[in-house]
Specification:
It is a single chain. About 15% of the residues have low confidence. The chain has one domain: Invasion associated locus B (IalB) protein (Immunoglobulin-like), CATH 2.60.40. An eleven-stranded antiparallel beta sheet has the order 1-2-3-5-6-9-8-7-10-11-4, with helices on both faces. The protein is α+β, with helices and mostly antiparallel strands. About 20% of the residues lie in helices and about 40% in strands.
């Protein structure tokens, strides 16, 4: 499971390296290689992307946080993202994950909240995934209907972070990646 989730992380890192302002990418821009994601469309605060690393198609919806808080205040970290990926070749649909922007504290969990619904996430390096895979569909459904997603975690240095993501446009971005990655 970690191996396939790491593959998705590589795609997100490629997105962050391709453009620090992914929402500003022109829709008609063609990817230089099949590993670079192509923007399928921008929907509110979410971008829908497709890529084919190693020839296997991957589609995902991606957003940056609207607000970020760290404690202690002012601690530096890399950009953070939340994404929902679909990998048909691996029978993966709507896998939720987070790139937090720093290595998580070893053996720590992160949390994701949508309204009153809370989801535990296990962490590895700078990534987090839902702990109970059976709850992933419920989480995606809550995200489709919700206004905001809040992700909390602790770095290896003890810095706590709270990132709030707008869910505006997520439902449309998910619909687009479902069309693209059947």
């Amino acid at each position: 499971m970690i191996g396939t989730r790491s593959a998705a992380t590589v795609v997100v890192i490629a997105v962050s390296l391709t453009s620090s302002a992914f929402a500003q990418q022109p829709k008609a821009a063609a990817a230089a290689t099949d590993t670079q994601p192509t923007l399928l469309g921008q929907y509110g605060d979410w971008g829908a992307y497709a890529a084919a690393p190693g020839g296997a198609k991957v589609c995902f919806a991606l957003a940056k946080p609207k607000t970020t808080k760290t404690e202690p205040v002012g601690r530096k970290r890399d950009p953070s993202y939340v994404f929902v990926s679909t990998r048909p070749a691996e029978n993966v649909k709507h896998e939720v994950s987070v790139i937090i922007g720093y290595p998580f504290k070893t053996s720590s969990d992160a949390t994701a909240e949508v309204g009153t619904a809370k989801f535990a996430m296990y962490t590895q390096n700078d990534g987090a995934w839902i702990k109970n895979v059976a709850e992933e569909a419920r989480m995606v459904d809550a995200m489709r209907k919700g206004a905001d997603l809040t992700v909390k975690g602790t770095s290896g240095r003890g810095t706590t972070s709270t990132d709030q993501y707008s869910l505006k446009g997520l439902a449309q971005a998910l619909d687009k990646i479902e069309q693209e990655c059947k």
